[in-house]
């Protein structure tokens, strides 16, 4: 785990990504002022419902989407968007996608799939040795058994390990894993999560794990950032956030886990359109605390509807963007 004094490996500051609206509509604010740090050797889980902006944020951190405003910094250097700079950056920061079947060319052997990144980046060393080492690190042992196989000859877990090996072969410092176990059977998910933890221990890898599954976050992450409608609304150490969630949105997400005590808290309606983000707290139209009168009793109902609660910082301190949670903490 990263230390509290070491500078972060990656930072996002006041990051915005907007997309043009359809047929003259206002631009969609997919990422709307995100602050996020990822430390060396740290695993951060980015959680939230589908459509909250998680994947767009991950793509912006990878340099696949250029921010409308704000800044991404890696190892102390602001990201540049020239082809040459992005090529060098993507050797250090690798993406692991959720669907290994879609990530792998069915005509390519495992060897070709893993070697592809080396060839793109002009690797001058022993290609076969690098590929077999990456496969071995990804848990495909002995690697020689897999080199000439095609994706259809592998199980889902083995295909995901090939995808991970394809990222590892470039010796990156950070993995961005977008729903890395969503398409896998339950029996295999634990193996892939254990692999990611082992890679952090053995190689000092950092990881941003994008997921809608708070149970996965609990099992793998050091820190969690909860995202809603383009913005992080709660962040902190995973044990702190998931054991004692302060934001009503985080509480609702946790309440539907299978082993959660009490009744599931079903949120009303759908998240608002990112081109029409409501005033005040962006969650207020669906907030059970506001609907139940608790926010009124705490004296913050008006603020919930009209005042933006701000953006949590990206660091290791536990923070929440919620008028009601802050009122409770100050009571």
From TrEMBL:
Ranges of residues in domain ABC transporter: 10-254
**Does rRNA-binding count among this protein's keywords?**
no
SMART domains cross-referenced by the UniProt entry: AAA (SM00382)
Transmembrane segment boundaries: none
Under InterPro entries, the record lists:
AAA+_ATPase, ABC_transp_ATP-bind, ABC_transporter-like_ATP-bd, ABC_transporter-like_CS, Oligopep_ABC_C, P-loop_NTPase
What keyword terms does UniProt attach to this protein? ATP-binding, Nucleotide-binding, Transport
BP terms from Gene Ontology: peptide transport; transmembrane transport
- NCBIfam families per the record? oligo_HPY
Q: What is this protein called?
A: Putative oligopeptide ABC transporter ATP-binding protein
**Which organism's genome codes for this protein?**
Streptomyces griseoaurantiacus M045
